[in-house]
Amino acid sequence: MQHPFQCIASVQLPGQATGEEYLAAACGPRLMLVNAGKGIVAARWSTSPTNATSEDKYDEAEAGERPAKKQKTSNAASHAPNIIKLTVSPNQQYIVAVTDDKFIHVLEIVGHGELKELSQRCMPKRPCAIQVLPDNATIICGDKFGDVYSLPLLPSEVAPIQDVEPGAEDGEAAKQEDPAFKPSATVLTVHSKRNRMALEAQMQQKNFTAKKEPLKFEHKLLLGHVSMLTDVIYATREVEGKQRGHIITADRDEHIRISRAPPQSHIIEGYCLGHTEFVSKLCLIPGTDLLVSGGGDSWLGVWDWPTFKLRRKFDIRDAVLDVVEEVAQRADMDTTEAIKQADKSVVVSGLWTAPFTNAKGKQEIALLVACERRPSLFIVPVSRLMLKKDQKTTQSRIDYPVLDVACVGDRLIVSVDGRRDGSPCLRVAQLHQAEETKGEVLSEKDEEMEAKLQCLMTSSKDIPADDKALDDLLYGVGNLRKRRGWDAPGDGAGGTEVDPTSMPMDPNHTEVVEVEDDLTVRKL
Fold it and tell me: CB–CB of 415/474 below 8 Å?
């Protein structure tokens, strides 16, 4: 069974000739950099715990954790951590990788595609989104706890942070410890068996100090959510002739927040409200003020994010059900029964933009949408997003669920989960639009480059792949959906979702309704 590539990213090395594009692909704990034009793997890097600092970093990360959690995380140290996030700096000189042991690794691309690790920093909670700012010097990182941090891309050499009590003026004061806990009761004053057992437990824990180690590297807390954070992106726009930065965050509680960039990240500009389910992905449309959001709702939100207005709800439920029907027909299954048994809820797992040439020979931008566990990639021209009566999407014929997408030159590289039958895990296509397609954007398979990327398949054959472990690594967005009810007794399923329309409505609930070219809020 072939381990799929869970993360991919395109890299254009400075000073390289046209056509010398590179692709960074993460396969389990291994990161490979391949010359897409020549089909040669230029460099490999792994998160293997055999490094000299691996044991130290796990001990440091587990400091202050409760015994049960420490035991669980120590078992994870026996295998190499998997890469879960991958991004490239705007100047194309650094690759930032996040592993599932909460570490952020910064790699430098040197020479002709060689990788050199510069730093590794352990965050307090597992990062869920990461991006390098346009200054090529700062990383913004959001974690599932709800916090967003900023870190220097290249940490400076500073003295370790000393854990000294405030007001300590010399070494003697620094060594002083808090007095140990001393129970007021003794064995002479406690007589019942139950109270004696409680006293013994208190005496055994009298020297216990639940104290977590501070982060020993430069960092700054920018903002926080009271809910699980799902995505973070950095946006810029011109305000009064100056470029102003913003941090756009999304969470599990249907919120999209627009905050100012550092050093004013504590100032909230506003919210984009309208989703009724979790928001898992955000995507900015280049050259516009449009923001596209997706998650557990059956539609994509198209926002004018500077004014926080929802311009349109682009429905994708019908397109998802068409995929279910098509899969059923190819498998010679009853279409009606397949749709009935299928999970009809939409779970958006990826949003990307890609350039294409329209029917008139001009360059345009297409929005690419992937839904979790659905074997299709939906393609929507950006010009069609604002047409209120147009709900059509083009489906790229992909037989396996889409994991990640990257653009290398004018080619679209799609990572798919083809582990079942050993099919190639990378598909290459070119987007184009013809007059006879009535505005639809089609993808044409590029077999030549696909053959060149087979070198990645060869280099990843020795990576172990287990169905249960891969499902946990690749598919987790659907778990963000909140349970709204339980199955009937005796069903054995344990719990499932119910139709929101069958639930009692909150009298203060509001709904966003489209009225011609504007939006209004109607109270239900």
Answer: no
* pTM for the structure as a whole: 0.78
- Domains: count for the chain: 1
What confidence category does residue 83 fall into, taking pLDDT thresholds of 50, 70 and 90? very high
3-state secondary structure (DSSP) of residue 111:
coil
Q: What is the DSSP string of 481-523?
A: SPP-B-PPTT--S--B---GGGSPPPTT-EEEEEETTEEEEEE
Q: What is the DSSP string of 34-100?
A: EETTTTEEEEEEE--TTSTTHHHHHHHHTTT--HHHHHHHHHHTTSPPPEEEEEE-TTSSEEEEEET
Instruction: Give the mean pLDDT of 166-172.
Output: 43
Q: What is the structure's pLDDT at 77?
A: 40
Answer yes or no: is 251 within a domain: yes
Q: Which of 34-48, 168-182, 491-505 has the lowest mean pLDDT?
A: 491-505
- Given a contact cutoff of 8 angstroms between Cβ atoms, the answer to whether 246 and 262 are in contact is no
Tokens of 369: 């949408």
Cα three-residue angle 173-179-181, rounded to 5 degrees: 160
Query: What Cα–Cα distance (Å) separates residue 120 from each residue in 93, 256, 323?
Result: 17, 30, 42
Q: Which two tokens stand for residue 439?
A: 């505005």
Residue 323's pLDDT is 83
Q: Residue 334 has which token pair?
A: 């009853």
Asked whether residue 408 is domain-assigned, the answer is yes
Q: What is the pLDDT of residues 325-336, one digit of tens each?
A: 877 777 666 666
Would residue 167 count as lying in a domain?
no
The neighbour count for residue 127, using CB atoms within 10 Å, is: 25
Residue type, 78: S
Instruction: Between 50 and 117, name the one with better pLDDT.
Output: 117
Q: Of 159, 42, 156, 138, which is closest to residue 87 (Cα–Cα)?
A: 138
Q: In what order do the strands lie in the sheet with 7-12?
A: 7-12, 21-27, 30-35, 40-46
Domain that holds residue 411: 7-47+82-157+216-466
Read off the CATH number of the domain in which 18 is found: 2.130.10.10
* 371 occurs within a structural domain: yes
Q: Extract the tokens encoding 35.
A: 């010359």
